[in-house]
C-alpha cells in the first residue's frame, strides 16, 4: 500500500457568490477538506458536470444549500488516499467512483469534486469498474443512479414498454440501456432531435422519435412507463397507458406523474457494476470532452447549451 503525502492546500474551482459562469474562479489555496469518521479522502482524477451544478450555482437552492464559498461538483472518480476511523471496506489505494452528495439539494457539500481532493462518505462510493477508465467512471454516478432509482420507483420490470424523453442526454441514455439490459424492457422508445436519432438506435432504441417533427403524445401507441428527463410532464402524462407510471426528474409532475430527486447510494453502483464490467451498459461521454481542469468554465458553458450527448467530463484535474 503506497503512502500518500497529502498537502494542506489544493487547487479548486470556486464561486463566492451565486450567478452565471463568470462567478467561477480558480483558487490554488483552498484548504484540503477534513475527514469525518465515516469518510474517505479521494484524490480526484476526473469529475463530471451535471445540470444540477449550474442550477445550484445560480442560487435557486440557496435556502437549503451549504454556505458559500462553494467548490462545485457531484460526480467523482479517483483514488482513496486516506480513510476515516469508521470506514469498513475501502482502503488507501482503492480506485472509486460515486456521487458525493447524498441529498442533491439538502446541504450538498461545500467542497465538491472540482478540486484536487474531496471528502466523501464511504456509503456513497463503489469500486470503479475494472474495464472503465476514470473519465468513463466519472460520467456515470449521478446519471446512472437517477436512471436506476427512477425505473425502480416506477415499478418497471421485464416485459414492460417505456418511452424516454430526452434519450440522448446524460440520464436518458442510461435509462435506455438499463431498461433494456438490466430490467428487460419489451420495447424502448425515445425522443431526440434529428441529428441524434442514429445515436438512439445505437443504444438499442426500438422506436426513435424526432421531436422536431412529431409529437410523441399524438402517437397511437401508449407506454407502461414514461421517463421524462427534459421537463415535459404535461405532455408525458398523455403518452402513458392507463395504470402506468410517469417519472419526472425536472419540472412539473401533473398526476399520474411523480417527481423524484435522487438520494445518492453506493449500493446502486455496486449492483450495476457487473453490467458495466460486461459492457452491457456503457457510459456515454460527450465527444467534445473531456475538458481539462483549466477549461472548466468552457465545459459549464457548453453543458448549459443543452446540446451535449451523454456526459460532460473534466479531466485531468491537477
Automatic annotation (TrEMBL):
Gene3D superfamilies xref list: Medium-chain alcohol dehydrogenases, catalytic domain, NAD(P)-binding Rossmann-like Domain
Keyword Oxidoreductase: yes
InterPro entries: ADH-like_N (IPR013154), AOR-like (IPR044626), ER (IPR020843), GroES-like_sf (IPR011032), NAD(P)-bd_dom_sf (IPR036291), Quin_OxRdtase/zeta-crystal_CS (IPR002364)
A Pfam family annotated for this UniProt entry: ADH_zinc_N_2
CDD domains (alphabetical): MDR_like_2
GO molecular function per UniProt: oxidoreductase activity, acting on the CH-CH group of donors, NAD or NADP as acceptor; zinc ion binding
Keywords from the named record: NAD, Oxidoreductase
SMART domains given in the database record: PKS_ER
Domain Enoyl reductase (ER): residue ranges: 19-314
Record-stated family: Belongs to the zinc-containing alcohol dehydrogenase family. Quinone oxidoreductase subfamily.
Protein name listed in UniProt: Enoyl reductase (ER) domain-containing protein
Amino acid at each position: 500500500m503506497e503512502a500518500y503525502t497529502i498537502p494542506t492546500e489544493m487547487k479548486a474551482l470556486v464561486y463566492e457568490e451565486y450567478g452565471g459562469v463568470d462567478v467561477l474562479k480558480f483558487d490554488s489555496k483552498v484548504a484540503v477538506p477534513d475527514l469525518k469518521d465515516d469518510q474517505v479522502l479521494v484524490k480526484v482524477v476526473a469529475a463530471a458536470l451535471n445540470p444540477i451544478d449550474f442550477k445550484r450555482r445560480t442560487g435557486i437552492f440557496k435556502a437549503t444549500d451549504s454556505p458559500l464559498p462553494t467548490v462545485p461538483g457531484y460526480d467523482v472518480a479517483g483514488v482513496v488516499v486516506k480513510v476515516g476511523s469508521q470506514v469498513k471496506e475501502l482502503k488507501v489505494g482503492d480506485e472509486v467512483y460515486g456521487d458525493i452528495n447524498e441529498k442533491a439539494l439538502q446541504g450538498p457539500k461545500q467542497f465538491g469534486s472540482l478540486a484536487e481532493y474531496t471528502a466523501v462518505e464511504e456509503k456513497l462510493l463503489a469500486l470503479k469498474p475494472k474495464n472503465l477508465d476514470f473519465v468513463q467512471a466519472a460520467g456515470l454516478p449521478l446519471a446512472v443512479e437517477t436512471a436506476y432509482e427512477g425505473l425502480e420507483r416506477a415499478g418497471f420490470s421485464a416485459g414492460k414498454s417505456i418511452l424516454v424523453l430526452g434519450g440522448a442526454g446524460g440520464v436518458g441514455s442510461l435509462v435506455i440501456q438499463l431498461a433494456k439490459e438490466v430490467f428487460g424492457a419489451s420495447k424502448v422508445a425515445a425522443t431526440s432531435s434529428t441529428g441524434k436519432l442514429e445515436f438512439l438506435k445505437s443504444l438499442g432504441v426500438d422506436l426513435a422519435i424526432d421531436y422536431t417533427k412529431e409529437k410523441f403524445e399524438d402517437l397511437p401507441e401508449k407506454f407502461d412507463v414514461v421517463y421524462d428527463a427534459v421537463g415535459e410532464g404535461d405532455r408525458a402524462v398523455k403518452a402513458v397507458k392507463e395504470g402506468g407510471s410517469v417519472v419526472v426528474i425536472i419540472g412539473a409532475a401533473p398526476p399520474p406523474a411523480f417527481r423524484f430527486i435522487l438520494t445518492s447510494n453506493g449500493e446502486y453502483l455496486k449492483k450495476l457494476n457487473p453490467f458495466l464490467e460486461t459492457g452491457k451498459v456503457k457510459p456515454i461521454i460527450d465527444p467534445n470532452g473531456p475538458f481539462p481542469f483549466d477549461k472548466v468554465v468552457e465545459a459549464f458553458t457548453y453543458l448549459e447549451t443543452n446540446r451535449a450527448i451523454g456526459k460532460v467530463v473534466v479531466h485531468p484535474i491537477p
